[in-house]
Structure of Homoserine O-succinyltransferase:
Amino acid sequence: MPVRIPDNLPAAGVLVSENIFVMSETRAANQDIRPMRVLILNLMPNKIETETQLLRLLGNTPLQVDVDLLRIHDKVSKHTPTDHMNTFYRDFSQVRDKNYDGLIITGAPLGQIDFTEVTFWDKIQEIIDWSQTHVTSTLFLCWAAHAGLYHLYGLQRELLPRKRSGVFAHERSGKPYPLLRGFDDEFFAPHSRFAEIPLEKLRAHPDLDVLAHSDEAGAYLVLSKDNRQLFVTGHPEYQKHTLRDEYFRDLGEGLEPELPKNYFKGDDPDNRAVARWHSHGSLLVSNWLNYYVYQLTPYDLNDMQAMTPWES
């Protein structure tokens, strides 16, 4: 089934060329179906690139998905045209009174800044609090995962000596979580971050379950006991060359980044990058939409009280 997106969104052409099933709002309006409504809070600098990455995953699921794009403020973006932002993005005031089946909060280039020093931290907290009564399930990615774990559970991240960048092997939990259906015992996922929450702290928290971790990269998938908050500390949405682009960008800015681990063929940046996480990323988002959104959400989004916890 398709992901429904606004007419003329630039990502549409890219997705169609990759045989990802997308549908314009005009065409979808003629279908008699209850699609999933997903809100994406995009905190990444290059909005169009991140939109395309996430829509690629949402469009590879068996459900029809209506997507709204949300911005954190109306300041001029340095990396995305103003016309694009004004045409396709909504302010929080425009969605505050609505309910959604799912919410995705992206990462942000704020890895070394204390949460309380982030200029829009109050707005992030407001949206997370709002999601508790207006969204069936929220998917937090990378920086947002740490922000959500801090705001909701008081878990403070710890800064790393060096940026953790690369593709790492992860081990899944042996318990039969619906989110992990179809997962191999070991799978790969990319990370690109400056901080972590120690694995032992996450495992010790009574309201959280660690579903997957890496011996090198730490916790990867963390799920709230009520199944409504999924924290992903990596970037399953990244495309093949995203880590490469970040590495050479940081080199150009004189930051002396470490080479992304397990990524370039032969660990040589002059060689091609190797993508080993696309199938996992697709399955992760598909399982989240199916088991933690579609299976839990009320048919009438005005009746959020109708939701019942998933039972394995």
Summary: Residues 2 and 252 are 39 Å apart (CA to CA). The chain has two domains: 3-237+278-306, 240-274. Residues 308-312 have pLDDT under 50 and may be disordered. Residues 3-237+278-306 form a domain with the Rossmann fold fold (CATH 3.40.50.880).
